[in-house]
Design goal:
The chain is built from ten helices and eleven strands. By secondary structure, it is α+β, with helices and mostly antiparallel strands. It has a domain of 45 residues: Winged helix-like DNA-binding domain superfamily/Winged helix DNA-binding domain (Arc Repressor Mutant, subunit A).
Length: 315
């Protein structure tokens, strides 16, 4: 995944959104490559009206960038989360752009919690990157988490569209050089058309379309979605970091979280803290209810931490 986002932060007032706009937003969360024709039929409005609504929601900073979620290393570089406890006075707005100027850092997320800064990083030399960060500001302490697998459930923000059921599966998809080139293009612009990709790669459109379909079946492409301003839509984003003992317990936890409509991203980590789950919720009670069900039904959970997202910026 990649954050191609304007900077957004908590505190944005909830925006009044029409029923048809809610349908459009939820459909794009569930399928960021849905065509204008598909959206028109499902919402029950004309294609020009769909185009106008998309532009209006983008102008209001509600509908943000489309995104590709993949289960293969597109850049052939490991994925890390660096959790940092910063010193006092480190300003989120002033320093996010400075951090993003460091090669390898793709996202800057600020949380309410002990580890108040989290960086999404793609790099082959993590220690060198950490040294570059330390030149920017004082790090009180940090925690390094390497991602080894991920799942995505389209968060259920608006009930005007049925929730999309996502079953738990594990696979190790294989891709060739053409697949990788297609993914790199979609990684930068997941709504780029088949014809545009075909022209760029000098390959037949039917071949490009077939490869995308095959990558969806194999799990190389997890999902196409669309970022939204969750705060403007009345949602908070919660990160739950967990320590779970036992492979079967870990798998059962992932499966259970995928059954909750509030779940977004799930990351399996190569660390003592081996699972990170992102929830989109409307209130604290939802978080408490989910954690109560998880702790009641799943064995092997030895520790957990909960963080609330305050702001984020990506490139």
């Amino acid at each position: 995944m990649r954050f191609i986002l304007k900077e957004i932060e908590a505190g944005n007032e909830k925006v009044k959104i029409s029923v048809k706009d809610k349908k459009l937003i939820q459909l794009l969360i569930q399928d960021g490559r849905a065509s204008i024709s598909e959206l028109s039929k499902k919402i029950g409005i004309s294609k020009p009206a769909v185009v106008q609504k998309i532009k209006s929601l983008q102008d209001k900073n509600i509908l943000l960038s489309p995104v590709l979620y993949s289960n293969v290393k597109i850049e052939d570089k490991p994925t890390y989360f660096i959790q940092i406890s910063t010193g006092l006075g480190y300003n989120t707005k002033e320093n996010a752009s400075e951090l993003l100027s460091i090669e390898g850092i793709a996202g800057v997320l600020w949380w309410n919690g002990e580890y108040n800064l989290s960086l999404l990083v793609f790099t082959e030399n993590i220690q060198e990157l950490i040294e570059k960060i330390e030149k920017k500001f004082e790090i009180k302490k940090y925690r390094l988490l390497r991602a080894v697998n991920n799942w995505f459930h389209p968060p259920y923000v608006f009930s005007d569209v049925p929730d999309k059921d996502i079953g738990f599966s594990k696979n190790n998809p294989k891709i060739d050089e053409l697949d990788r080139k297609i993914l790199k293009i979609l990684y930068d612009d997941s709504r780029k058309s088949i014809l545009e990709i075909s022209s760029e790669l000098k390959s037949a459109p039917i071949t490009i379309k077939k490869r995308i379909v095959e990558m969806k079946k194999s799990g190389a492409i997890i999902s196409f979605s669309n970022y939204i301003n969750f705060w403007a839509c009345g949602r908070e984003v919660i990160s739950i970091l967990m320590q779970i003992k036992g492979r079967s317990n870990l798998d059962n936890t992932i499966k259970k979280f995928l059954s909750f409509p509030q779940t977004g991203n799930i990351w399996e980590l190569e660390d003592e803290w081996n699972l990170n789950v992102i929830l989109w919720v409307s209130n604290q009670k939802e978080v408490n209810d989910i954690l109560e069900k998880i702790n009641r039904e799943i064995k092997g959970i030895t520790n957990s931490e909960v963080y609330v997202l305050a702001s984020l910026k990506g490139k």
